[in-house]
Specification:
Layout (H helix, E strand, L loop, with lengths): L1 H25 L17 E3 L2 E2 L2 E6 L7 E10 L7 E10 L11 H5 L2 E8 L2 E2 L15 H4 L4 E5 L6 E10 L12 E10 L4
Antiparallel strand pairs: 1-4, 3-10, 4-9, 5-8, 5-10, 6-7, 6-9
Length: about 190
């Protein structure tokens, strides 16, 4: 009986020592002298103006007319932006309406995108012809996935270029119809 009691006590001591050692292993705090966590800011400017949207007007256009824009994006913040997202939207902006008032979607589909470049990279190749009219247009841009593009480091700037034209084959039903196009740029501190 003494032997059994002695073995039980010895076993309990071994288990206790193992538990304490494991507990100490998992709770081993360390400190790093002079370490700091710094937060920064992203401050995206478009054409040196606060704000992340730019507006382009496609109104009173004649067949073959084109509209182009160059937008300079700059990170004026104190931390790097890892990636950039670009989103397009549009609303109807008609001139004097004609007898047939075409929708904003139909009007946007007549505006063929010729140039879509960010930081020297052609983005037009990533846009699909979603409305299957045979070319890439402003309506297609609203469905395009233009996310996770290269970001902007602190105080860096990159150019965004766009050009589109009213198709030569646009019929008279579109006279006086137009759209206002909004481009929204979002600079992200972390990747998705």
């Amino acid at each position: 009986m003494k032997k059994l009691l002695g073995l039980t006590v010895a076993l309990m001591l071994c288990l206790g020592m193992t538990g304490i050692g494991s507990f100490a292993y998992f709770l081993d705090p360390e400190s790093a002298p002079d370490s700091q966590l710094e937060a920064g800011t992203l401050d995206l400017k478009t054409d040196d103006v606060d704000g992340v949207t730019q507006t382009i007007y496609a109104t009173s256009m004649k067949r073959g007319d084109s509209v182009s824009g160059n937008i300079t994006l700059k990170n004026s913040g104190s931390t790097d932006g890892v990636n950039l997202d670009i989103v397009f939207s549009f609303i109807e902006n008609d001139d004097t309406p004609n007898a047939v008032d075409m929708s904003a979607n139909a009007t946007a589909a007549t505006l063929e995108v010729i140039t879509l470049v960010y930081d020297g990279s052609n983005l037009l190749s990533t846009v699909s012809d979603n409305n299957t009219n045979g070319y890439k247009d402003i309506q297609d841009l609203t469905n395009a996935d233009l996310t996770d593009l290269s970001g902007l480091n602190t105080l860096a700037s990159k150019d965004f270029d766009i050009e589109f034209k009213l198709k030569e084959t646009t019929d008279n039903n579109f006279q006086g119809d137009g759209v206002t196009i909004t481009i929204t740029f979002t600079l992200n501190q972390w990747g998705s």
